[in-house]
Automatic annotation (TrEMBL):
InterPro entries, sorted: SLC26A/SulP_dom, SLC26A/SulP_fam, STAS_dom, STAS_dom_sf
Keywords: Membrane, Transmembrane, Transmembrane helix
The protein, known as: STAS domain-containing protein
A Pfam family this chain is assigned to: Sulfate_transp
Spans traversing the lipid bilayer: 22-41, 116-139
Domain of life from the UniProt record: Eukaryota
Domain STAS: 176-209
């Protein structure tokens, strides 16, 4: 649910409180459990369809739930004769429109090959073995990538940037600003990540080098 809300916050330029979202999901599941209801969550495909249709209120969810219920109750004699390949084509056509190709282009442009590898592996496993296997493998790979990044301390070497007259920002990362000059005999480091037990060894190795 949080991932869906954050995605639409970025797309539509508005703010959502994570605490309120979590409280809402928690209350829905608590009260729903009293009546043996299914766990409440959000759906990215349905949310994207609603967003593309111009929906702006919760009434869209009520309408979207009533229409399938009505069709399942009264329209099954008509839907029974529709070939499954036709329904599959409709689902595939809708799925293609839901894909965010800008994000893929952004990953390629930024050279995020690790994320692209996870994307391609997840896509292949989903097609071959189903969404459950694809999601589990993607979760495992993402978790390993997170642990690896957390174990690598982000340390930058600062140099004197003569073009900046502000004393607070006169020292810049030499990798980002090649013209910044290091001071002979003095090593100035900038730690861009919190120091925790998992990256202390990496931090010590970077300093010793």
């Amino acid at each position: 649910g949080m991932a869906v809300s954050k995605q639409f916050c970025i797309d539509n330029a508005y703010h959502v409180s994570p605490n309120r979202e979590l409280v809402a999901f928690g209350l829905m599941n608590v009260f729903g459990g009293l009546f043996q209801a299914f766990p409440a969550t959000s759906s990215m495909p349905r949310s994207k369809i609603s967003n593309a249709s111009g929906a702006t209120s919760q009434f869209t969810g009520l309408l979207a739930s009533c229409l399938p219920l009505t069709m399942a109750t009264f329209g099954m004699p008509v839907l029974f004769y529709i070939p499954q390949v036709t329904i599959s084509a409709l689902v595939l056509a809708a799925s293609v429109r839901l894909a965010n190709y800008r994000e893929i282009y952004f990953l390629v442009k930024m050279g995020a090959w690790a994320e692209l590898t996870v994307l391609l592996i997840t896509l292949a496993l989903t097609f071959l073995f189903g969404p459950e296997i694809g999601v589990l493998v993607a979760f495992g790979m993402s978790l390993m990538m997170l642990v690896k990044k957390s174990s690598m301390a982000q340390v930058g070497v600062l140099g004197h940037w003569e073009e900046d007259e502000n004393e607070a920002t006169k020292y810049r990362d030499v990798l980002l600003f090649p013209r910044a000059k290091t001071i002979p005999g003095i090593l100035i480091l900038k730690i861009d990540s919190p120091l925790i037990f998992i990256n202390m060894a990496s931090f010590r190795d970077r300093i010793e080098r």
